[in-house]
Each structure stands twice: as structure tokens, then as C-alpha cells.
Amino acid sequence: MLLDPGMDLTLRPMRYPLFYEMYRSAIKNTWTVDEVDFTSDVADIRDKLSEAERHLIKRLVAFFATGDSIVSNNLVLNLYKHINAPEARMYLSRQLYEEALHVQFYLTLLDTYLPNEEERVAAFTAIENIPSIKYKGEFCFRWIESINDLSSLQTRQDRQRFLLNLVCFACCIEGLFFFAAFAYVYFLRSKGLLHGLASGTNWVFRDESCHMNFAFSVIDQVRAEEPDLFDDEMRKNIIKMMDEAVECEMVFSKDVLGLGIAGLSERDMRSYLEYVADQRLAVLGIAPVYHSKNPFPFMELQDVQELTNFFERRVAAYQVGVTGEVSFNEDF
Ligand SMILES: [Fe+2]
Ligand SMILES: [Fe+2]
Question: CB of 143 within 8 A of CB of 215?
Fold first, then answer.
């Protein structure tokens, strides 16, 4: 079984071809940070952003500064260790590379947006110094550490604890904290601002969606192999964890929107988070808890733009392969 302890190295016969297919399609989605053009963002920040929007973006980049590194750490310390199939570990290796790419993307973003060195250093230490970001960080660390003592998944209880960690990273961190961050980015794009950030975010968004899908496939597989792991207690724990994540993100939201942004209220943000939380629960076969609607039409557009982006992307990838130095501009 997938969570049986060990270091399975047998790719043939392959037990989980789906994970191998996910690995292969992730390879086809390769992009590079050099393709993102931040030129118009710098002018937007200087000339167009209001004081309140500038505060929003400052907080957002400070969150981005460490978010993907946290996910990478959990991947290495927990997921890679316990998901025992070589084809699944191939996918996780690819995900680890994508997380590094995201870290590189946000590093470049911070270097561009914050030319002042002191501000830059402050952004990278936000996880210690800015309470709303520290709070989210503590939530993540608590869940990373929750299975520190598990060297192998021997008992039913061990496996349930591991699954909670997996669900947390897919549904609460990649699936909620990051999606809230994307919502701020796409809100700004809907006002014609920061297109460089939005174009890079399109690719990060797609990667994160794939990471979630992989985690959900692992969960489906484990569930098929060991259905008794998903008992009422497990469901209750997931709902509680999801609710904590929503409240955690709302603390950040209050800070980010603190100066008041026209067209983006705390109430809308809460509805959006609850709507996303219900969606994540639905994938896990858990009935909706919040019954909230998506208040953000610009997030519904995202799927359509993903498709457009995909076709443009093929052209860009081909061009990069030929010349090695084509810069890629998007214009939605
Ligand atoms: Fe990421
Ligand atoms: Fe991710």
C-alpha cells in the first residue's frame, strides 16, 4: 500500500501510473522566471498605486517571500518520506523544483519592487516581525512539526496524522493561503495594475493547482486502499483545521486591507475564503460548511485565462528553446 513504510524502488510493474502521468504533464508545463517582464509594474508602483494599495502589495510580497519555502520544507521532511512509490516520488521531485522556481520568482519580484535594501530585508524577516504573517507561519510550522516524531507510518493513527498534514498543505496552505494571495493579485490586475506580477502568477497558479491535484490523488488512492482511515474523527479534524486556516487568513486580510481599498472589502474576502474552503472540503467528500458564494468575478475568469495562457505558453517555450533570450509579454 502507498503509505506502507519503506523505500520502494520498483518502477516496473508500475503500481500507480497516474502519478507518473502527472509527473510527465508537469514537465510539459515548464516556464522560467526570465520570461516574466516586470517593467510596467515598477512604473505602476511609482505612479499609479494608492497608499492603501501600496500597503497591500508590501504585505503580499512579504508573505510571498517565505510561503513557498515553507511548502518545500514540508515536502522534503514529510511527504517525500512517507509516500512510498517511486513514481509518486518522481512527481514530488518535480514539485520541489517548481517550488524552487516560485521562490526564485518571488525573490526577483522583491528585488524589483523593493529597491531599498532595508525594506527588502524587512520583507524577508516578516515571518518573524509582522504579526499577521507570523501568525500564518506559526499555523504552517505547527502542522509541519505535528508529525516530526513519525519516522514511519506503522499504525492507523500514524497514517491519520500523516493524512492531516497532507490535507493541511493541499487544502489550507497551497489551496487557501496561496489562493487568497492570488485573489489580491488578480484584483489588482482587474484594475489594470501590476501585469508583470499577474503574468507570473498565472503560471504559479497553474502549478499550485497541479500540486493540489496530486495531493488529492494521493488521498484518493490511500482512501481506496484503507477506507477506514477516513472516519468521523478525521472529518471533524479536517473541518476544524480548515476553519482555523480561514480565520488565520482573515487576520492577514484585516492587515492587508487595513487602509481601506475601494472594491475589496474584508467581508468579500471572508466569503471568498469560505467559498474556497467549501470547494476543498467537497473534493474530500465532506459536505459544505459555509455555503458562501464566490464574490470575485475576476477569480472565475481565471480558468478561461489559464487556457489562453496555455496556448501562448507553448509558443513562448518554443521560442525560448530556439533563441534562448526571448522575453515574454502577456496582455490580458
Ligand atoms: Fe509554490
Ligand atoms: Fe505548491
Answer: no
